[in-house]
Specification:
This protein is an alpha+beta fold. The chain is built from two helices and two strands, in the order H-H-E-E. The radius of gyration is 15 Å and the shape is flat.
């Protein structure tokens, strides 16, 4: 809920906010997790025009403690 609230309140344009919120909710329900940002870049890193860029991020959320997936 907090993630969706931030997206709404800050008028963040993001792809797939609902699936992200569902994944975060699932992880929280399963116990402690540790998020790790794998990579972040923008289209401005690839093309020289930085007037209108799109950001891209990849991340993994790893469960901490225990052996269960």
């Amino acid at each position: 809920e907090a993630f969706l609230r931030v997206v709404r309140d800050r008028q963040i344009s993001t792809c797939g906010p609902l699936p992200v919120a569902i994944a975060l909710h699932f992880c929280r329900a399963r116990g402690p997790h540790r998020p790790e940002l794998l990579r972040y870049y923008t289209s401005g890193d690839v093309i020289p025009d930085r007037n209108a860029v799109v950001g891209y991020a990849s991340a993994v959320i790893r469960r901490t403690g225990g052996n269960a997936p």
